[in-house]
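[stage:ingest] chain + small molecule (protoporphyrin IX containing FE)
[stage:ingest] validated
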Amino acid sequence: MKGIIFNIAERVVTDRWGAETWDLLLDRAGLVGAYSALGTYPDEQLVAIVEAAADALEVSVADVLRVVGRDGFVHLAGRYPDITARFTSAREVLLDLDGVIHPQVKALNPEAIVPEFEAARDGDTVVLRYTSRRGLCHLAEGLAAGAADTHGETVTITQPSCRLVGDDACILHITFITPDGDG
Ligand code: HEM
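[stage:predict] done
[stage:export] tokens:
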């Protein structure tokens, strides 16, 4: 996983709970930290940090990932202004993840291993089929929520099917409560 994702997790934890909490999580995860945005680090290190956070906060790993995604989206998007500037709604962001956003991330950082998102519209709902060996579908839920926040939209997110509970695929339903004006 690229260091930028660790940087964003650090930013979210620090903003919510303070820098000493991030240090404590690294300590509990048995890690030194010092992640550079363009470096690549073992996925297991992110998992260890998230598990340490879930333990310390007495919440589920899924909830930690949701918070990191939701609070972190604005910071992640801010690191790629050339990619994100063109988007005026969360719906567009979600529909263009596979066609535009992640391929451009990959073009800029060839070492990045980006997830796949097959996207479809069903009325007010964007249906995303998430495929990644990393199993970070709850991070995806959080990032989708963060995209909605960033564009002043309200969504509800469910995952009627999830590989982590034995289903064949992770399918996210992001339903827009507020219209985004593009019909
Ligand atoms: C719009 C701006 C976005 C940018 C610039 C961006 C960029 C990135 C980058 C740099 C990574 C790390 C890849 C690696 O470490 O190899 C990543 C991973 C990821 N992104 Fe995005 N992303 C964006 C939006 C989203 C949204 C809206 C979602 C969810 C709906 C999403 C879901 C994910 C997930 C779940 C991962 C973790 C890797 C995995 O699951 O395999 N991203 N993204």
